[in-house]
Amino acid sequence: MARGTRGLPSERFPGGVSRALLGLVVIIGVTPARGQEPEPEAEQARPADAFVDSIGVNVHLGNTDTIYRRYDEIIRPRLAELGVRHVRDGLRAERRDVIARLNDLTTLGIRSILIVSPEEAVEITRAASASTWAVEGRNEPDNKGGGWEERTRQEQAALYRAIKGDPATDQLPVVISGMANTRDSPGKLGSLVESLDYGNMHSYPGGLPPTSGGWGIPLSKAIAEARKVCDGKPIVATETGYHNRLAERGHPGVSETAEAKYLPRLLLTYFDHGIARAYLYEFADEKPDPEYGDKEQHFGLLRVDGTPKPAFVALKNLIALLADPGPAFEPGALAHALEGDQQDIRRVLLARRDGTFDLILWQEVPSFDLSTREDIEVVPRALTLRLPAPVGRVEVYRPITSTEPDGRVEGRSEVPLRVPDDPLIVRIKPGPPGG
Fold it and tell me: Which Gene3D superfamilies does its entry note (predicted)?
């Protein structure tokens, strides 16, 4: 998509009148025949901050031969800049340096899910008690050779007994190991509901839009497979994401531009599917690889020199726009309707504590062509947001570019929109104009 496209049509006409306002005059001034418009219906919103709290990233703070050794110089300040509240890491008990860094991150409001062995689980989580949100079993055991099913069952049961058997750790959630193969490994493992608090999945889309669950299956199928292990308990995705090695065939990569569109969509899609938290893999490219020969060095939100990729900027802006910390509250419902061609349009409705609603819209279409290895310029979709009565203010934001509004109107009940293939936040503030 062209960088200059805006959420509200905003090209200037002679005299300085914006097309956004002209479009509103036309819509309000000419009333279509009744029965041709969708009637606004109430939709229950979810707390905006609940979405922000569902975002995590993977780190490797103990990898001293990678960018992660530059903790004070790069990793810590960039985590603070991103605004994320959750990280995932794995460690052994002797790595007191890593434990110290994890505990230090709590001063930024960041907590951890830790991959630990049953034997060291209590020792590690006691030492990292300020940081630890949950523990997770062995990473991707289905990649560890034959007999992994029974080995995983035994290790998971031992981890659960260890954590729940110590009064200092018995309140910590225990997460099942994430499987590398989302298609059928969970079914081979079977139900372990007595040895876990959360299910898990490592659902990499493989260069496709976020509704892919990897391994040639849709996300809905990956979630259904994960439920074969956890039944009705909640699910986290402790790994998911995209890399930028375009020549990779088995697990295709995407451009940095496409990644900046896909990752915010992925997080919103997982939240909309009821995934309790999704941890992007990973925070930073680990080692220099200027020839792009190893995909493992290109999953980061940061480049290996610590500079942000476009996806980092898009996520930072998304978090900044939607963060709304505070005590629990009951979000309201918003009566609204969308008019126009809604094929492939996805939406998530969030609410803030001040009564403002954030309606997030995007086109769930490919943004990258895996055959040509080129970005796809997606034409923004023209839609109209209809509300049952004029509202105080409507603002439109595109986090991929900025936290500043792309357009603003007041006292209107119908708003023209141009929906791109990256998330568009339509902020609706009830009340009188200017309020």
Answer: Glycosidases
